[in-house]
Task: inverse folding
DNA sequence: AATGAATGAGTCTTCATTCAT
DNA sequence: TATGAATGAAGACTCATTCAT
């Protein structure tokens, strides 16, 4: 008789929004943005098609929201490092943080890769990530130098490439890719190389 | 009517087909398959929209043809190595061949990456490449082992990842990525690591 | 529960209904029926969208109600003339009554004009107004004849047209149209014409 | 075998465009812009729905085109007067020109009336007509003064209103409205009034 | 009586594909 | 072989209406 409580109403809306975002993320990541229809998103999210557009004005806005919210959520996790450790531990923590992000949200990483391959979307993603990446790469460069790298710039490139390469393989078939073994192998290779001439 | 004109006619057809394929490749690589319209392809190829469909029954067939023809063309170049050399030279030749392919056809590599991120297309590309990749990886594994790798399997993964990571960065902005420096750095790192205990 | 609260409840309902009708009238008149959404009506009426449909089963019913109630309300005012005066005064009273209706409810008149231009709605409006208009025009015709018109039928048309023409201009921009001056001018013209040969 | 001649192709396109414009004009005039669907337009124009949008990017653009092209076409006819005559003949010519426009294109006039009643469209129509109307009303005012009007401004209003009032009645049911008789009656009334004190 | 989230039929618009020439 | 007008199925988006509370 009385209308739904303000609280309940808000909660319902938040839940349906989340369902839409989640369904869209999966479909965008697996089929691409353009190939994904609003109908499919609605079906997977188990809401009506119309409801999507009470949350987002356009299909594009769903992707925009994903990039805004989800990426924003991920960067701190991926790049946020605590300072109270040795350079080596810091380095390992960084690598592992990134890898955990990939393991926790492979779809999001896969989508990011996709957007990066798309002229129309690349800029947006770059802009979003730039702030974090600059800080990250700056810190990483110093760390690498401390660990004994002779050429921290190129090593940074190598690490960045490593992550993209892992992402391109792991996120499309997580169960088939030995992500941890490969990571350990790569890290060991780097560390053993640097160790030989550590910055005193 | 005369053999000459028939010849000419054939040639014109081949040329317009090539123009379509080339335009489609660029657009597919930069915007994605679904986001590319037949109109855009026709415009870029400077042919009429109708002509596209005399060459290819559907838009999908254009992509299929690209994958068939272009990829088919690339694999031998990328993986074809002449045998008359030392393992080290062979290894370098392999790496360089792949890199040259990327430098010569960044759009094609970019498209391949994209297709790999797409559930509906991944299988196709995998199938196409499988034969070559198996041979390639087999050969590479042996080569690496000969060069002193302690763990040729993981090193293979590393190299594969390296190429994907390079591709993800280089093909979207070739002018910004120091592809050769990074490659040299990576190769040097691998070789120096293996050198220490070469398989005699 | 108590009679008091039931009373209050009824009153509240009547008020919200009125708000809806009033908001709908303005929007229908300014944007047209089809271009007006239930959301807009709710917003302007400061009620929830759902409430609209407790008062009216369909959006159409709102317009129907406006026509029924409002037009019904207006006709007696516009056409109701008291008899205790000279033909000239009666004539002036009629004209002024109509004009006052227009000045009091320009939106309603504007809406009526609009409905008249719409094949699907014209009939309805015509039917509603017919009874009054027939009486009115009959009375007007006699009045005009008494005042000396040589051709009361055509003069009736002229007067009818005059009102529509005024309406088309005044109701869309009341502040810009010198409605009284124009009315006085028109009335004076008619009366001076008839005066020359008044039916004794 | 060879493509349609450039000529034929152009002609086809022009014809289908005309069919769309014509169908849209009728439907917009009779049902209103918002209540008219693209499907209806296509059906009445006997073209496919898709074809509409090769001519016009949006439904709105059809209306815009009608206003641009058709109104533009009408104004010179309605307001274009040849100078080589007496003021009285000029005046009659003006009135008749307007009336002929209404008789030739009642749907267009009806649509114009409708747009005038719509807040969102009124400005556009006003702007389109302003240039002509200013010239027209300026000329008319002088003409009226020459013909002996004591108050040319108010007489201009009267004439403008007369046209709008006629339009509101004639264009929705041309067969029912004695347009010529009413016009003659009105013109005679004005002229006889002015005659009594012509500007010498 | 009142709310606003949810629905889905309906509308506008796009675009791969066809077809007459 | 080549053209581009034409088609219509499919997709994005709107909005009157319903419904749980």
Result:
């Amino acid at each position: 008789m009385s209308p739904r409580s303000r609280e309940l109403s808000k909660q319902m809306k938040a839940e349906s929004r989340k369902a839409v975002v989640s369904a869209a993320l999966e479909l965008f990541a697996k089929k691409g943005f353009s190939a994904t229809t609003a109908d499919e998103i609605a079906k997977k999210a188990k809401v009506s098609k119309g409801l999507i557009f009470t949350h987002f004005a356009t299909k594009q806005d769903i992707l925009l929201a994903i990039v805004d919210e989800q990426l924003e959520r991920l960067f701190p996790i991926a790049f946020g490092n605590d300072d109270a450790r040795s350079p080596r531990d810091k380095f390992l923590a960084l690598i592992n943080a990134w890898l955990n992000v990939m393991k926790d949200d492979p779809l999001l990483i896969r989508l990011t890769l996709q957007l990066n391959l798309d002229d129309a979307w690349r800029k947006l993603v770059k802009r979003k990530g730039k702030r974090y990446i600059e800080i990250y790469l700056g810190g990483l460069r110093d760390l690498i130098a401390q660990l004994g790298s002779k050429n921290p710039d190129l090593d940074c490139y190598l690490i960045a490439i490593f992550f993209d390469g892992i992402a391109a393989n792991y996120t499309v078939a997580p169960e088939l890719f030995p992500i941890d073994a490969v990571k350990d192998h790569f890290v060991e290779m780097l560390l053993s190389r640097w160790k030989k001439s550590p910055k005193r």
